[in-house]
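Researcher: Let's do a round of design. I'm pasting the structure tokens now; please hold your answer until I've finished.
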């Protein structure tokens, strides 16, 4: 990019003192010059994002007129690309400053070719695949003029009751940060101005995942240390890798709604992190501050949001209706408004919209073979094998299989939440592929017609099919509508009569493989012992059926690992691996289950440690867990120094050998614990991971390097600090695996 030296009026508050000879990007110069010529109405217009209901067929005249007057800066969810073209033409040809519009949509896990839900993609522990998937999403979506996606969602999610956990990368800040980078680089491509790039939007800033009780939109109480050490981390990564935009969240964060929270929006995002893009509110979240009881009316909501430096308002019209008045009354300043408009124009420039406002509707690229292959690979790598009793899986290719369950042939449901553009006609379901493209002799009987179905009328047929087969493949789970926004559940077991049907099928004594498609972990206590194998496929997307066929027939070994702790019971939530210790941590060998407590036992006879009398202290499956068809031996674990100095780089080596019979992938995980801190530290934190592929009998050395800065935390002095002292490390197969332990003392 060429850099010229120009004089500049103020670009933002920070640049007020720009020395005359500062080097200024020519884009900034252009932005300044445009803004200096804009009317107040036009400036307010740039902060407005409007939508059109998909039920309204024709573009409403009032929207067309507003664009003509320069009173709208962006649109979301314009489903018809001809509408988008028409609006853009009016904006760039007829509006006073001829500023292009930016069209946005929730392209969350694919546009037409749908990839697994983000929680599933995180289970792949394969950022390269995630980057490729989001690149494909951008290539497909940009053919409809969508140059801005409201993704990735980077909310740390520790509560599977919360429906939006499906859109997250799970509970871990490090894994979520790695995924953040992959998504953003994929959506935005090498060059944001390429017509196939979409601006990313890191959302929801911040604390949305901590909604009380997993009830959507609820209050988030997150203390300052937790905020910095856990919730903010992936968003910092988003800024570092150049996310063009951020979105605020609906929730009230420690008493101040996120959409007007100066501490996070101004002090952290702008002043500490130097974020250069723009921030959009969530849908109506500005005026919802009235409901929160934080603003008495829309005008006060606008005042508070604007002063917190929220640049664009999604759908509600508080800025449009009141900003002029707020400026006249001195409650907000035109200079600050200029700053907001410049943030927005900067991204429009970087997207190349000023030079190339239109798009290429090249539909040939939709569902391209390469896109489908990538979606299939991601679905394979996202699938987690949770149980495999007596190696029931893979199923020999000449078996007689009974395909049962409401998700076996549910093309819409397997796409999952947020698939406005996905088309079920393109979905490959397990039934499709097993019938058409496998050597199995297949008996199909759904037993239940949808996941919440409580009718037992189909049970008889399903049992008949099971009896005539060698093995039952039971496709269970949740319909797409049961997870996602506002779709929280208080119980997260299999809905409807699915457990009942599994229990009936178990009576046939045929082995059962349970294949789950769901937007969250499912509590399995009532049936876990009745099934022999469990595969978690999440909502696997367009190619879910063929991905599962490859795994079930043993063409590939499953390699997903859980990005979230899987509870046994809802009562254990919140449950996450990176918790703090208590003063009385559980002593496993002393744990007494409530059924074993003697009658009239002495009150303190149970050891007084931290556990549940009924659910115990362990999850069903820990974070990072997942089996495969092969096995791996970990050996020769070494550390470069046991006495590093502050600032040193430390290397951990481990030899991994595939001791099984087939080629497989393994995600080797490195965890650490800072044993003593000026702030209590989690019992374990993921520090690094690497996914490798090994042929049987082959070994590979995995080398992890990290610096002592990677061990830092935000401490009582409100600064990031690495403290000297003792640390433990584990090279592990999952978060509870402590077989390979190392120690070092940092000087
Ligand atoms: C969601 C956002 C989404 C927006 C636009 C809101 O309800 O919380 O995540 O991007 O709608 O569809």
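Researcher: That's everything. Go ahead.
Model: Designed sequence:
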């Amino acid at each position: 990019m060429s850099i010229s030296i120009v004089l500049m009026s103020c670009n933002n508050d920070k640049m007020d003192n720009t020395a005359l000879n500062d080097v200024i990007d020519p884009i900034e110069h252009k932005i300044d010059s445009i803004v200096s010529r804009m009317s107040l109405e036009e400036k307010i217009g740039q902060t407005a994002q409007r939508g059109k209901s998909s039920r309204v067929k024709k573009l409403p005249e009032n929207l067309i007129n507003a664009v003509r007057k320069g009173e709208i800066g962006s649109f979301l969810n314009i489903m018809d690309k001809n509408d988008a073209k028409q609006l853009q033409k009016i904006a760039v040809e007829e509006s006073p400053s001829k500023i292009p519009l930016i069209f946005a949509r929730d392209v969350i896990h694919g546009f037409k070719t749908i990839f697994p839900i983000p929680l599933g993609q995180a289970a792949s522990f394969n950022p390269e695949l995630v980057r490729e998937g989001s690149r494909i999403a951008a290539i497909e979506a940009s053919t409809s003029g969508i140059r801005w996606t409201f993704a990735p969602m980077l909310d740390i999610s520790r509560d599977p009751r919360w429906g939006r956990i499906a859109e997250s990368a799970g509970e871990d800040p490090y894994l979520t940060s790695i995924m953040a980078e992959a998504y953003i680089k994929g959506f935005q491509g090498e060059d944001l101005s390429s017509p196939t790039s979409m601006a990313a939007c890191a959302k929801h800033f911040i604390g949305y995942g901590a909604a009380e009780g997993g009830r959507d939109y609820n209050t988030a109480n997150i203390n300052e240390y937790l905020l910095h050490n856990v919730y903010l981390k992936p968003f910092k990564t988003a800024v570092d890798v150049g996310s063009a935009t951020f979105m605020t969240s609906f929730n009230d964060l420690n008493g101040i709604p996120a959409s007007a929270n100066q501490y996070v929006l101004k002090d952290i995002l702008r002043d500490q992190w130097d974020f250069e893009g723009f921030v959009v509110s969530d849908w109506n979240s500005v005026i919802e501050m009235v409901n929160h009881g934080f603003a008495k009316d829309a005008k006060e909501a606008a005042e508070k949001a604007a002063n917190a430096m929220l640049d664009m308002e999604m759908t509600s019209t508080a800025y449009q209706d009141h900003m002029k008045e707020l400026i006249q009354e001195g409650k907000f300043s035109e200079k600050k408004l200029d700053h907001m408009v410049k943030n927005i124009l900067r991204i429009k420039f970087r997207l190349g919209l000023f030079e190339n406002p239109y798009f290429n509707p090249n539909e040939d690229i939709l569902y391209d073979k390469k896109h489908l292959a990538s979606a299939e690979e991601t679905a394979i790598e996202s699938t987690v094998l949770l149980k495999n009793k007596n190696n029931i899986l893979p199923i020999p290719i000449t078996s007689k299989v009974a395909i049962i369950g409401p998700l076996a042939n549910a093309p819409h449901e397997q796409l999952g939440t947020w698939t406005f553009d996905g088309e079920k006609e393109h979905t490959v379901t397990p039934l499709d592929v097993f019938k058409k493209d496998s050597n199995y002799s297949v008996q199909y009987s759904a037993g239940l017609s949808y996941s919440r179905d409580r009718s037992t009328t189909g049970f008889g047929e399903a049992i008949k099919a099971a009896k005539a087969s060698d093995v039952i493949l039971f496709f269970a789970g949740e319909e797409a509508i049961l997870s996602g926004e506002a779709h929280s559940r208080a119980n997260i077991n299999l809905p409807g009569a699915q457990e009942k049907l599994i229990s009936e099928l178990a009576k046939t004594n045929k082995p059962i493989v349970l294949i789950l498609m769901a937007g969250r972990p499912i509590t399995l206590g009532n049936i876990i012992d009745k099934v022999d194998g469990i595969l978690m496929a999440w909502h696997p997307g367009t190619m879910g059926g063929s991905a599962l066929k490859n795994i079930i027939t043993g063409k590939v070994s499953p390699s997903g690992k859980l990005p979230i702790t899987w509870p046994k019971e809802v009562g254990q939530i919140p449950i996450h691996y990176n918790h703090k210790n208590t003063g009385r941590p559980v002593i496993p060998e002393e744990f007494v289950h409530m059924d074993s407590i003697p009658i009239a036992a002495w009150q303190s006879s149970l050891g007084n440690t931290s556990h549940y009398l009924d659910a115990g202290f362990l999850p069903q499956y820990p974070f990072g867990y997942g089996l495969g068809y092969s096995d791996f031996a970990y050996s020769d674990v070494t550390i470069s120094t046991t006495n590093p100095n502050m600032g040193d780089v430390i290397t951990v080596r481990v030899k991994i050998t595939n001791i099984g019979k087939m080629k497989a992938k393994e995600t080797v995980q490195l965890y650490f614990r800072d044993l003593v801190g000026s702030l209590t530290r989690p019992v374990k934190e993921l520090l690094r991971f690497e996914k490798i592929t090994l042929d049987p009998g082959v070994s590979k050395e995995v080398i992890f390097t990290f610096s002592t800065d990677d061990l830092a935390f935000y401490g009582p002095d409100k600064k990031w600090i690495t403290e000297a002292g003792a640390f433990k490390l584990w090279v592990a197969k999952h978060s509870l695996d402590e077989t390979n332990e190392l120690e070092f003392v940092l000087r």
